[in-house]
Specification:
alpha/beta; TIM Barrel; 8-stranded parallel β-barrel; 11 helices; 17% strand
């Protein structure tokens, strides 16, 4: 499965991208054949001003253009309630960091309080038959001097599973993951938690994306987050953004390794040209 992430690509852009341009871009992506599109977020506009028009964008999307499920990022129960007012949204995403520093920096919430938020959001999702993806931020390392090892992620994922979480995405938030850690953590998690669905959200440079993707595949991962041209990154993590795994690179890897992909690459090419105009 492939999740295209225009939200992640756009959120760190300082210049305002007009709502009508966002609508045009996401409508183009809806034609491409992605499984999920991470299209926007319901968070405080002061935190992510670029996403303050998410509800307006959603209302402008053309549902005749594709069958991708839509995912929106939320940071608390209020955001979840706002997002779940829209029937078109199938998934909510919650960024849960195993770094206390980053969780406070990203959501102004401790890890303990964030667990409470997840519990409340799960209740809301279950009541409307929606799905919650919990992103494990800093899954592969910690740049803040806090203690880190893979077992920390495993402990928190087990607690999240016990709360009812079924979808986990491991996030290489600041691009520091090593191929060995990617492969081994995924192998361990997939074996230990067979009822969970694991994906990966990689932040990479143009020089190390392939070794990370290959490690994830060798670890058993078959669900990847990508962004056209690799735009984006997490503006809350550090001053210099490390971009997303480029859609074009993942598709090239799949082709080389003889994995089937239903993505229309001619539309990806069009979207790439538009993305450069919007975000470069």
């Amino acid at each position: 499965m492939i999740t295209e992430c225009p939200r992640d690509a756009m959120q760190g852009i300082h210049d305002w991208i007009p709502t009508e341009i966002k609508i045009k871009y996401i409508n183009l992506l809806l034609k491409a054949g992605f499984n999920i599109i991470d299209f926007g977020s319901f968070v405080a506009p002061s935190a992510v001003p670029q996403m303050k028009d998410t509800a307006k964008v959603l209302k402008g999307l053309d549902w005749d253009e594709g069958k991708a499920d839509l995912l929106a990022i939320v940071g608390n129960e209020r955001g979840a309630k706002d997002a779940l007012m829209f029937d078109q949204i199938s998934y909510l995403g919650f960024p849960f960091s195993i770094s206390e520093t980053f969780q406070l920096r990203n959501l102004n919430s401790s890890i303990e309080d964030s667990m409470k938020r997840v519990s409340g959001i799960i209740t809301q999702c279950d009541s409307l038959n929606k799905k919650l993806v919990v992103y494990i931020s800093m899954a592969f390392g910690n740049p803040y001097g806090e203690h880190w090892n893979p077992d920390i992620a495993i402990v928190w994922i087990e607690q999240l599973m016990q709360m009812g979480v079924k979808y986990i995405s491991l996030a290489d938030t600041v691009g520091m993951a090593k191929p060995f850690d990617i492969q081994n953590l995924l192998k361990t998690l997939i074996a230990e938690f067979p009822k969970l669905r694991f994906g990966i959200h990689l932040h990479t440079t143009p020089y190390n994306w392939e070794e990370k993707v290959h490690a994830a595949f060798m670890g058993g991962c078959r669900q990847f987050d990508v962004a056209i041209k690799g735009f984006g990154g997490c503006p809350m993590a550090q001053d210099d953004l490390i971009g997303n795994l480029a859609t074009e690179n993942l598709l090239a890897y799949l082709s080389k390794e003889k994995y089937f992909s239903a993505i229309d690459q001619s539309i990806v090419l069009q979207a790439g040209k538009m993305a450069i105009q919007m975000m470069a």
